[in-house]
Design a protein that fits this description.
single chain; 259 residues; alpha+beta; two-stranded antiparallel ribbon; 10 helices; globular; disordered N terminus
């Protein structure tokens, strides 16, 4: 049985999951060679992984190309995940109201490893290229939701993210670990964060934490939109107020009774 060093992780399973995670909104179809190159594995290994995932319904052959795309089993698991947590259906009306008031995209995100994962997104009425889609992952140090989640995360999580390196996506991205830790202290004091052009120079996002019954931050609620529309301090303050209010509603759904 093959294991990855001494971590007790099955390398074949790990690689299979990496294959699934390599698909995105931008690259919904991938060929064997592309997957092999991205995962730094041989084409024969990539081919075996793909055939196994295809047999289980997690991948299907794309009818318009030699590539593969995600199969219906992925959607099935997503439905089970969502329906298993009443919270995700209960929070829907509040996110919808947040969109109605702010006129921008609203989302709910969690952190996994060194990535932010978006679980829910409600579209605003206007076009917005915010790089936020359900199932997508973004770097936590350069996004408002990510910084909220890191600010309240265990030290081990923060240390792990910092050890991976802080990529500069724009001139506004914080890449200094000491400066970022100070930012986390500020976030914990004010319980929100405004991120201006840190991941995409043309976009702004505002996020606030969602607490559970034990006072632990389990997710973040945010609003994101282009600076061309969110172009005044008044608009930023209005959106901030609504994001904080929505995050408080979400926390109350989970039983939180704090301030």
């Amino acid at each position: 049985m093959t294991q990855e060093k001494d971590k007790g992780i099955l390398e074949s399973v790990s690689n299979a999951l990496k294959v699934l995670k390599s698909f995105s909104q931008e690259t919904p179809v991938k060929r064997v060679g592309e997957i092999a190159e991205e995962l730094n594995i041989s084409k024969s290994t990539a081919s075996r992984l793909i055939k196994t995932l295809q047999a289980e319904g997690f991948l299907i052959h794309d009818e318009h190309s030699p590539g593969y795309r995600l199969g219906k089993e992925i959607l099935s698991l997503g439905g089970i995940f969502t329906s298993s947590y009443e919270f995700y259906s209960d929070i829907g009306p509040y996110l919808n109201e947040l969109v109605s008031i702010t006129k921008e995209n609203a989302h709910l995100a969690i952190i996994s490893g060194d990535e932010v994962i978006y679980l829910i997104k409600y579209m605003g009425p206007y076009y917005s290229n915010t790089k936020i889609e359900v199932g997508n992952v973004n770097p936590p140090h350069a996004t408002s939701s990510g910084k909220i989640l890191l600010a309240y995360a265990d030290n081990s999580v923060v240390d792990y993210v910092l050890q991976q390196g802080l990529t500069a996506f724009t001139e506004n991205t914080i890449t200094n670990p000491i400066k970022l830790r100070k930012e986390f202290e500020k976030i914990r004091r004010q319980k929100y964060v405004v991120s201006i052009g840190e991941y995409d120079i043309d976009n702004l996002s505002i996020a606030a934490p969602v607490f559970d019954i034990d006072g632990k931050v389990v997710s973040a609620i945010g609003v994101a939109g282009p600076l061309s529309r969110i172009n005044s301090e008044e608009k930023i303050q209005n959106i901030k107020r609504e994001v904080i209010k929505t995050a408080k509603y979400a926390s109350e759904i989970l039983g939180w009774e704090g301030d």
